[in-house]
């Protein structure tokens, strides 16, 4: 087409006349910064400080990821990260809601996940569905999806935390950095910690500084959860003591058989059952050693919700654990 036009001066002149306005318009766009960035006609687009915070580079467990603008379409591939995004008012277009057969996003998240697409299961996220959601940020954990990082990064900027249990507060802070919500994260974590300390002080006063154990029944080993866990961190934030055999700051849990029930001995015992662990729970509770243990505790043995105490791993879940503690011991809930 161009070579044909070049055969005649008249046609060349006409072409130049047609192209000149376009060239001027392009120059004005480049110099004046008036190029449409996709936000001009979007009343929901962030403005002001949020815009000024980008681009930013997020350093995470798998390296560095550059975010050119505040993410507005987020996919979270672990339920704890789903809850972190919700806590930080992120727009969650896709997420993995829960583990195994628990099914569905937690009721306490309410309308915040009403439009969120389930992209699970956890073990094998649906990459085609994730891509179809056109995310501008994907968040997951190395412990969950290490082998999928490159594939996820090819879909959208991707940020990985290392794990999801003992680092739950740090994970919230990392997502806050990605969403330019550092102040919100700091305020929410501080409010939770203040509340935990107040309820813990009341429990210590009520029970005379009790020691506390947390036992979880699974379809594999039965576990005593130690300080470097979600529930363990909450107990520490409350200032509640652990039995001497449960104070290792590095270990995640102690696995026990029915013959080792006495290792869970404490003034107060909380226990949960994960999906598939119900049969083992029944065996333990029927064991005379368990009956003897709970008798020594003068009735201070309480069954609590696994989906809150164990798998939520979030600010929302932590505050519900505090609700349980306040209700169980009849102390002020410090809200």
UniProtKB/TrEMBL annotation:
Biased composition (Low complexity): 41-53
Domain Fe/B12 periplasmic-binding: 73-333
Transport listed as a keyword: yes
Entry coiled-coil feature ranges: none
Main subcellular location: other
Keywords, sorted A to Z: Signal, Transport
Family matches, as CDD domains: FhuD (cd01146)
Protein origin, superkingdom: Bacteria
Chain residue ranges for the region called Disordered: 33-57
Record localization: Cell envelope
Signal sequence coordinates: 1-30
Sequence similarity: Belongs to the bacterial solute-binding protein 8 family.
Protein name in the entry: Iron-siderophore ABC transporter substrate-binding protein
Protein species of origin: Streptomyces millisiae
């Amino acid at each position: 087409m161009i070579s044909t036009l070049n055969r005649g001066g008249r046609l060349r002149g006409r072409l130049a006349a047609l192209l000149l306005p376009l060239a001027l318009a392009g120059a004005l766009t480049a110099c004046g910064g008036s190029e449409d960035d996709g936000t001009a006609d979007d009343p929901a687009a962030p403005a002001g400080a949020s815009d000024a915070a980008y681009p930013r580079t997020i350093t995470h467990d798998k390296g560095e990821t550059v975010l050119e603008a505040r993410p507005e379409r987020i996919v979270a591939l672990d339920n704890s990260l789903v809850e972190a995004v919700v806590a930080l008012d992120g727009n969650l277009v896709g997420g993995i809601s829960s583990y195994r057969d628990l099914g569905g996003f937690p009721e306490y998240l309410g309308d915040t996940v009403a439009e969120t697409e389930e992209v699970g299961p956890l073990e094998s996220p649906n990459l085609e569905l994730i891509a179809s959601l056109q995310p501008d940020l994907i968040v997951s954990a190395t412990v969950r999806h290490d082998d999928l990082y490159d594939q996820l990064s090819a879909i959208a900027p991707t940020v990985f935390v290392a794990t999801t249990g003992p680092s739950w507060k740090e994970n919230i802070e990392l997502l806050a950095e990605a969403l330019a919500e550092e102040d919100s994260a700091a305020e929410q974590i501080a409010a939770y910690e203040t509340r935990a300390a107040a309820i813990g002080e009341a429990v210590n006063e009520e029970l005379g500084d009790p020691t506390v154990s947390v036992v979880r029944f699974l379809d594999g080993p039965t576990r005593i959860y130690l300080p470097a866990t979600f529930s363990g961190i909450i107990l520490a934030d409350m200032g509640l003591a652990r039995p001497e055999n449960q104070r290792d700051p590095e270990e995640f849990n102690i696995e026990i058989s029915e013959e080792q029930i006495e290792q869970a001995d404490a003034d107060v015992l909380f226990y949960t059952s994960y999906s598939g662990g119900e049969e083992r729970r029944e065996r333990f509770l029927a064991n005379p050693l368990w009956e003897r243990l709970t008798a020594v505790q003068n009735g201070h043995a309480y069954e609590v919700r696994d989906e809150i105490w164990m798998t939520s791993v979030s600010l929302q879940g932590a505050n519900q654990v505090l609700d349980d503690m306040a209700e169980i011991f009849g102390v002020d809930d410090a809200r």
